[in-house]
Amino acid sequence: MSFEEKINILLVDDKPNNLMLLEAILESPEYHLVKAASGMEALKYILKEDFAVILLDVMMPEMDGFETAKRLKQRDQSKDIPILFVTAMDPEEAMFKADLSGAVDYLFKPFDSDTLRSKVALFVDLHKKNRLLWRK
């Protein structure tokens, strides 16, 4: 599988260890994992590449995950990309805010690796099917 055929997945977290963990769990020849250390960096990547799904940490300095998600949903090139929040926040508060900011799903830390992989695989599969539909 060539680099161009890989599916882009954006991982956003201000903590390098969390990015490395996500990368280790999701590593696959099928995926091109792009890491961003801030919401602003994530917004810049969106201008350059198409992503199947965005895994977004909630608690980040400067611009938290909720604000980042709102900005992503305001841009034409990223408004339809599913956002999966990965958070250690209180579940009730996180679910309410995640829904308001446009996220489609969330995982609470510590999360199960198999659950993360299966959720990402679902969004990747949907992305592939959408690409096929648009080619027809």
Automatic annotation (TrEMBL):
<dbReference type="Pfam" id="PF00072">
    <property type="entry name" value="Response_reg"/>
</dbReference>
<dbReference type="InterPro" id="IPR011006">
    <property type="entry name" value="CheY-like_superfamily"/>
</dbReference>
<keyword id="KW-0597">Phosphoprotein</keyword>
<dbReference type="InterPro" id="IPR001789">
    <property type="entry name" value="Sig_transdc_resp-reg_receiver"/>
</dbReference>
<protein>
    <submittedName>
        <fullName>Response regulator</fullName>
    </submittedName>
</protein>
<feature type="domain" description="Response regulatory">
    <location>
        <begin position="8"/>
        <end position="124"/>
    </location>
</feature>
<dbReference type="InterPro" id="IPR050595">
    <property type="entry name" value="Bact_response_regulator"/>
</dbReference>
<feature type="modified residue" description="4-aspartylphosphate">
    <location>
        <position position="57"/>
    </location>
</feature>
<dbReference type="GO" id="GO:0000160">
    <property type="term" value="P:phosphorelay signal transduction system"/>
</dbReference>
